[in-house]
Amino acid sequence: MQVRQIALNAAFGAATRSAQAMDATGVKAAAYSISQQLWLLAGVALFALQSSAAALVPAALGKGDNEDDNDGATKAARAVADRCLGWGLFAGTALGLLQIACLPLVRCFSPLPEVRAAARTPAFLSALAQPVNGVAFVAEGVLLGLGAFRFLAAQTAVGAVAMMAFLSRAKTLSQVIYAIYWFNGIQAVLALFHHVRLSPLARRTPASPSDCAVVSVDGGRPDLVCVVDDEE
Amino acid sequence: MQALSAGEALSASVDAFHWVLIIEMRAAHLCGAWIGLLACTHAFAPPRRPKLRLHSVRAEPEPSRLAAALKPTRGPLDKDIAAVALPAMLSLAVFPVVGMVDTFFVGRMGSALSLAGQGAANAAFNFCFFVLAVVPTLTAPRVARAAARGDDEAVRTTARESLWIAGAVGLCGTVALVGWPRYFLKLVLPANAPALAPAARYLRYRALGYLPALLSSTCFAAFRGLLDTATPLRISLFYNALNAVLDPILIFGCGLGVAGAALATALAESVGCLMYLEALLKSAHKSNFAVLDAIDAICPHPTH
Question: Complex ipTM above 0.90?
Fold first, then answer.
């Protein structure tokens, strides 16, 4: 987890530094800082969703521990995680629209006209990425809830490396925001991949039709029983 | 040996710090690349031999996960998610608001330097706080799992462990920030900035709130694990209101200036911490199982 924090700080610190190095007057740096603050006003909701997912998924899993009902608990946890991801998408979209609507608020952050003008584009661009952010944040929350820390650190590191590679070539503030797009996009893709394929919550499909047979279990009604690759 | 002049010492330490930053960035690059490489080898590792497990699959097709996740109508799970997520959103939304309150009052002082100093000190404080915020993030899932199991003993143990760790780390953080504020300010301010003096003063007082803030954060995480985000919201609203009330009293009434804003925030955070600890002690034996009953309703236990 500390590795993840370091990667996050290195990446976003590099973003701030490159915004500051962009021009000597500090206008770009101030504009970047304002666009980030505007993002944060909406972003706290996504942080809250992330931490909620991180609590709801293990809560659903824990119910199965007592009754030794792993399948039911896994199904419940999968349903909760899926729905949280849906919420993430909706919330991200809503917050993106809200952020765009609040662009005039940029005025509150600085009295200088050139800073205000410079801040509008990065704020608008970072608002466009909010739907993807929503999914990425919630998916990370699910990973946190499952305790998949190594995967989380790895995906953050990959995202950070990609982001810093783009940052080293960024010449304008918009390009800095595009670099952040890459970071969040990679996070979303990798976390979703984990959720659908690698996670303990992923749906296990039977290896092939020949691995299934209709059997009557315990003399009850006949049921389709399959051999499944169990990665636990 | 002659002592270095203050300017030379400062520029030498800034140079050293720049080298530390460059080394840290290079290390993070290398770290990231190495970890990325490890992750890739893991993904392309040869497939393991599957463990055989008989898995009963119902004949009818399972509903599409994507459709279930994105259904725009309110489903049974949404009540549970909202019960946890919405108060959490409000609690976290309070923080930017509080920052604005502080900035507003310091702005009323009329000194641009104080405002710049306060902004820089807050940035340094937040940086130090979030770097070490790993403890609360790790607490919530563990408490959640233990609470859902009904294992009160594990909940208490987890909470106690997390609080001890948070306490130890918080104490180190407080000592570091109170003792060496300028070192941390160099992260956000260039060396000879005139705002350095008020920023250092602000940071010294604000740092007194570092330990309570980390403990509060950990308690909040423990409550999240218990799926109770309403109590933290109440406590958070109270101590932020306290901060807003104390700010004008300490800044203008006691004449402490920008340090008064920091002291008000630190005091409010300490009160919040005490309230959190008391609430946690009271509720450690109760858990919010009701929200999980809806989950039960969706996925009924298969009857054997």
Answer: no
